[in-house]
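Bug report (template v2)

What were you trying to do?
Predict the complex of my protein with arginine.

What happened?
Run completed; filing so the output is reviewed.

Input:
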Amino acid sequence: MSKLWGGRFSGGLDPIAWEYNASLPFDWRMAEMDVRGSIAWAKGLMKAGVITLDEQHQIVKGLTDILAEVRGGQFQHAPSDEDVHTAIERRLTELTGPVGGKLHTGRSRNDQVATDFALWLLDAIDRVDAYLKLVQTTLVERAEADMGILLPGYTHFQQSQPILLSHWWLSHFWPLARDRQRLAQLRERTAVLPLGSGAIAGTPFPIDRKFLANQLGLKAITPNSIDAVSNRDSAAEYLFIAALVAVHFSRLSEMLILYTSGEFGFIELSDAYSTGSSLMPQKKNPDTLELTRGKAGTVIGRLTGVLAMLKGLPSAYDKDMQEDKVPVFETTDTLCLMLPVVAGVLKTLTVKAERMQAALNPAMLSTDVADYLVRKGLPFREAHSLVGKVVLRAQQTGVRLDQLPLEEFQALSPVFEADVLEVFDFAASAARRDVPGGTSPAAVQVQIQQARNFLQVHKVRSALPPSETARGGDGS
Ligand code: ARG
């Protein structure tokens, strides 16, 4: 079979080495981007006087036909196709004859692959962003629907203070807001054109690179051809953001898994997002959430793999870099399933408000008792130590804090008066935390508005697939 770089070689490649070298089985996913890049390049060559307008038309017509074949799934791969770039160039020559052989003038697969990959990443960023917004919207809707429900807040996974469930839902909204900001910033850094950098040194033809960037919807051109073909920062950064997204979803999942256990019973997953046991008929397992927690590990691994691949590379392009694609593609596939699944879980779960209420223990109001003493003039440190003694006393006598007789309080300090018992009101405790960002109903209402404003300002660039929109995504 004839290879695009075959001239210098007299012997053929060992079949297994050929298979090892080839990237077509995975980089075919960039076919549309490759065609778009080539159409821009053909126009650039014409503007530079390298090909005639008629040749440009022939090449663009051939590439447009190839795009239709790619989209229609009719593109036939040949045994000589090493990667997406060689496959499309081979097909172009079949369709247009020798003029197709002019397309690669002044271009290298090194600047070509960097361009295709940037375009692919931009598309992936937009898709992940749309799914993140879907989850964010679901969290705000939950916060609105569950307003007024109290549950224990945990630090060190010990009961700490009562909080509003809506506040807790929104605590998972803001990490995703930061993820979306990170994606937006990455988008800016990724929308820079490498094409025109050649193999390493630039192209010897007077190509208008700004025109190319414009054709491809990119905002800028790379300032250094060596860096342009060496740079895989966007892939690494994308994988880092994806890993952080996955970590955020993993932490949410871990908590929801605990909440579904018999001991907590705070929430119940819908049948649509849980599975049964093959042996134990009573089981309803939170598999979707466990998989989310597990896949976060895999996503982190892919980031680590790409950083390790990059760390020892000498200058400019090295074939090692071909290993950047699969982790990015697979991570995108993972997120494009993980995010809508978690959105579905959140949308359809049932909150057991009475179980949450029942789990609230008056000991969680110990800080409020200390604050009560502070309001009566005691320094907080003294109040803290005094309430510690009250807690110990209640424990020793085997009663809940709110059932300790007033005399016991007063035996520890005369500052305690009968109104101390008024402190034992969980809703009042939450309502007192009325600072911006606090758990009071009023502060949480403001927060819901802030979250809505964020969604309003941070529009998505690509619509979700119709199936997701039908399931409640707004796609805006
Ligand atoms: N398939 C290669 C990759 O994905 C394309 C670039 C090949 N460049 C080269 N000089 N062999 O990295």
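What did the reviewer find?
The chain is about 60% helix and 5% strand. The CA atoms of residues 84 and 225 lie 22 Å apart.
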